[in-house]
Amino acid sequence: MWLLSNLYDVFSVQVSETRSSTRDSRTGVERHLVSRAIGERRRTVTKERRADGEERTTDTVQNFRDDERDAFDEEWGTQAERSLPSIRASRSGVGAARPLGSAPRSRSVQIEDVSNDAV
Predict the structure, then answer these.
(1) Which residues pair with 44 in a beta bridge?
(2) Which pTM does this prediction carry?
């Protein structure tokens, strides 16, 4: 059993995704970051919007070439679907993973009034 467990660890791929959003109330700068990794390879896209409306996007790669971005995104999607339950569940519906740097999809939410007055 020990050998099988260690072989699984050797052949398993570490897949991760980190998301963060911040807003500096003093300067009005909003920053949204999405970072995806497969083992030692990582792609990070940061979108920043200043208070005056100017937007800037930074797309960085680590441990692979710039021209391999699309291949990395495809591999990340395949590996994440196998490894990350939240990605696997979302692949068939709302919130499915999309390539980094692509435009966000719009979502709509309907909120029902559940107060006692509505009954």
Answers:
(1) 35, 60
(2) 0.65
